[in-house]
Amino acid sequence: xxxxxxxxxxxxxxxxxxxxxxxxxxxxxxxxxxxxxxxxxxxxxxxxxxxxxxxxxxxxxxxxxxxxxxxxxxxxxxxxxxxxxxxxxxxxxxxxxxxxxxxxxxxxxxxxxxxxxxxxxxxxxxxxxxxxxxxxxxxxxxxxxxxxxxxxxxxxxxxxxxxxxxxxxxxxxxxxxxxxxxxxxxxxxxxxxxxxxxxxxxxxxxxxxxxxxxxxxxxxxxxxxxxxxxxxxxxxxxxxxxxxxxxxxxxxxxxxxxxxxxxxxxxxxxxxxxxxxxxxxxxxx
Length: 285
Fold this sequence. Notes:
It contains six helices and ten strands. By secondary structure, the chain is of the alpha+beta class.
């Protein structure tokens, strides 16, 4: 179908999927677990450490979620130039702690389409559930930004992100990404050449391959889980954010946090002072 309002409410084909303990450990390493100290975060990166049970980072939910919410959505569109597509927003809401391995079904729908004039924004909402019991694990809500696909006269939809608080952050966290971070993260399944092929990235208007937005999202989510929830996945409720500017492998991520009870406002900047992620909200139990 062409990109317009007719997409709203369209069901996305459900997909069966699975993951293993190796998949969840690989994801943890791909978003920086153990990078500063391999002896820490072993509950995310190993399955056979004495006295430690393997657990799963909640943001791992984007892997199956985006198979349907991104890949399945793109399959519903007329031929689109993927070099013009950017991830706009992402939210993971956890209903039940993710197991180290699982057989699942993911289903959802297109929940919104907005005409930004020179671009289109398509939103989707999908839920990943246990294939045998039907227990929902996570719901992912995401939006994709398609440059050059707007202008059909539809509604513009919500405006930009809410401004960050003006007060001093309650805490500031930092992470340095690896120069090969995108090559590592693509092993989780996102092989878009925008993140690995220099020629493709230049054709898309970037000086070099950019880091996956979902990789930066996962890094930040891991830092927040460790800092705000004592590294306990069961204490995670949700994490949302808007991707405001591209980031590159090797960048520093500076995470500013304002806390009020269980809700924590979040913004992320690069070492260049660019706002990488805005309108962030991390919610704990």
